[in-house]
Amino acid sequence: MPYCPKCGAEFVEGQKYCPSCGQVLEGGGRERVRRPSKVGAVEHLSLGFNLAMAKPMIFAPVLVGGIISIIIDNLGGSRLDLTGFAPILFFASIVSIIGSIITFVLNFATIDMARDAYMNQPLDLGRSFNYALSRIVTFFIASIVAALLSITIILIPVAILMMVIIVMDETGIMDAVSQAFSVLSRDLGDIIVILVVSVVGYALLGWAPLIGGLLTAGFGVVIDIAFIDVYHKYRQEYMTY
After folding, report:
1. Most exposed of 36, 71, 189, 223 (fewest Cβ within 10 Å)?
2. Phi, psi at residue 145, to the nearest 5°?
3. How is the chain split into domains, by residue range?
4. Which long-range contacts (CB under 8 A, 24 or more apart) does 35-41 make?
C-alpha cells in the first residue's frame, strides 16, 4: 500500500486525501482541505457549561480531589507541635503523599470523564480513576513536559491541548504535542479567547471564601470540555472525510 508523503500513514490507492492527516494525495497538492465551521470560542464555552450542568456527575473527581486537598492542607498547616510524636508525624506524611498521588490521578480522571460526557458515554468515576491510574507514568511525564512548556507562557495553550489530546486519542506525549501545535495553528483565535475567559474565571472564583478552590476546580471542568470540543471539531474538519 502507498504511504502519505506528509505523515507516513498507509492509504488505499485512489483516495484523494490522507485519512490520517488530510494531506492531498492527488495532483501533488500540499494543502489540507478544511470543512467550514461556524463554531467559535463562545460556542465551545457554552457547550462546556451546558454539558457540565446537564451531567453533574462529571464534577465527582474534582469534588473528591478538593476534599482530599483540604485534608492535606489541614495536616500540613496544623499548628500542633508534633516534633515529639514521630509516629504521628510519619503517618501524617504518608497520608499527605498518598493523598497527593490520588489527587494527581483524579485530575486526569476528570479529563477522562469529560471526554465520556462529551461523547455521550456512561460516566463511571471508578473506571475513569482506574484508567488514569493505569497511565500514571505517562501522565506524570506529560505533567513535567506541560510545566516546561508553560514556563514560556506563550506555549501554555499547547500544554493544555496536549493533556486533552493524550486522553482523547489515548496517545503518547510526542504525538499529542505535535497535534496540539497543529490545533493551535488553526484555531489560535478561539483558543486565546477561551484562555482569557479561564484566567478571568479562575481569578474571580478564587476569591470566594472557603469554597474558592472547589469553584475553580469545577470551572476547570467547563474549560476542559471547551478544549475537548475545540480538538474534536478540529478532527472533524481536518482529519475526517
Report:
1. 36
2. -60, -45
3. 1-33, 41-238
4. 35/236, 35/237, 37/233, 37/237, 39/229, 39/233, 40/190, 40/193, 41/189, 41/190, 41/191, 41/193, 41/194, 41/197, 41/226
